[in-house]
Design brief:
Helices cover 37% and strands 16% of the residues. The protein has 297 residues and is an alpha/beta fold. The relative contact order is 0.14. It starts with 10 loop residues before the first strand and ends in a 19-residue tail after the last helix. It contains 10 helices and 10 strands. Strand 7 (147-153), helix 5 and strand 8 (173-177) form a beta-alpha-beta unit. The protein has an 8-stranded parallel β-barrel with strand order 3-4-5-6-7-8-9-10, surrounded by 5 helices. A two-stranded antiparallel sheet has the order 1-2. Helix 1 (42-54) crosses helix 2.
Length: 297
């Protein structure tokens, strides 16, 4: 198994005292199954086991991906003690009954608890009261011990503000699409001011479906400077801003390369330069139907 010398995934402390590894392995999007009745995807099980063996202990899932059974099987077969893993899942399909949803997820995952449970998107709500009612159910999940931390995904500032108005336990994190071509205005500094962490999905967009773009030159320059790939620069841009990065691959070599993002630190100026370059292009890879073309939130 490939071993990157000096590679140790750093952790970020959340507002409830728990710590989350800053690079996560995703089991959605590329691995998405259209039906929960589809047979187990053995290739995904093996890929997750490979990722765990390489040191990816933050495992990101969701009920809507229909891959929780694969994630659960891989965890069981990995041989790694449960307490060494950070398991995430999300609710949206069964948002109407969150207590039942977490029980169903835990059954599929073959686990007693998840480390982080997220509301997958804000688009179920038509009022502030909707956000508040569902968050109250999330707080009950945390109090029950079935989730160590609770948070949200794809929320904008108004959604978070509505939630915080009545929250007795604030969201620990907001997982959203975040990269140089979708920096979401002031959302990151605002979340930091409220002690709500940010987790990024699609962090590699500038080196994948966001090409060509104004970041190409600086990504190439920084990759050459740090002797890494451009994907590792994209990941490090997140980490150096205190943002957790969630990515995936079924290829050992690529997962090994991503671990190189843990072996260097960009200067504040380099982070800022990449951010400024990214403002020259707007690219949203997910939820396009929910936003106007030029909406950069």
């Amino acid at each position: 198994m490939t071993n990157i010398e000096g590679a140790k995934i750093p952790s970020l402390k959340l507002n409830d005292g728990t710590s989350i590894p800053m690079i996560g392995y995703g089991t959605g999007t590329a691995w998405y199954k259209s039906s929960p009745d589809d047979k187990l995807d053995q290739s995904l099980i093996e890929s997750i086991k490979m990722a765990i063996k390489m040191g990816y202990h933050h495992l990101d899932g969701a009920e809507v991906y229909n891959t929780e059974p694969e994630l659960g099987r891989a965890i069981k077969e990995s041989g790694v003690p449960r307490e060494q893993l950070f398991v995430v899942t999300k609710v949206i399909t069964n948002i109407q009954n969150i207590p039942d949803a977490i029980d169903a997820s835990l059954k599929k995952l073959q686990l007693d608890y998840v480390d982080l449970y997220l509301i997958h998107s804000p688009f179920f709500a038509s009022s502030d009261e909707d956000f508040q009612a569902k968050w109250a159910e999330m707080e009950e999940v945390k109090r029950s011990g079935k989730a160590r931390s609770i948070g949200v995904s794809n929320y904008l500032q108004p959604h978070l503000e509505a939630t915080l108005k009545t929250a007795t336990i604030p969201p620990s994190i907001n997982q959203t699409e975040f990269h140089p071509y979708l920096q979401r205005g002031d959302l990151l500094p605002w979340q930091h001011s409220k002690h709500i962490a940010m987790s990024a999905y699609g962090p590699l967009t500038p080196v994948t479906k966001g090409r060509p773009g104004p970041c190409d030159e600086i990504l190439a320059t920084l990759a050459k400077k740090y002797y890494v790939g451009e994907g590792e620069i994209a990941l490090r841009w997140c980490i150096d801003q205190g943002v957790v990065a969630v990515t995936t691959s079924g290829k050992e070599e690529r997962l090994s390369d991503y671990l190189r993002a843990t072996t260097f630190t960009m200067t504040p100026k380099e982070v800022d330069d990449l951010s400024k370059a990214g403002l020259g292009k707007h690219f949203r890879g997910f939820w396009k139907h929910k936003f106007n073309e030029n909406d950069r939130r």
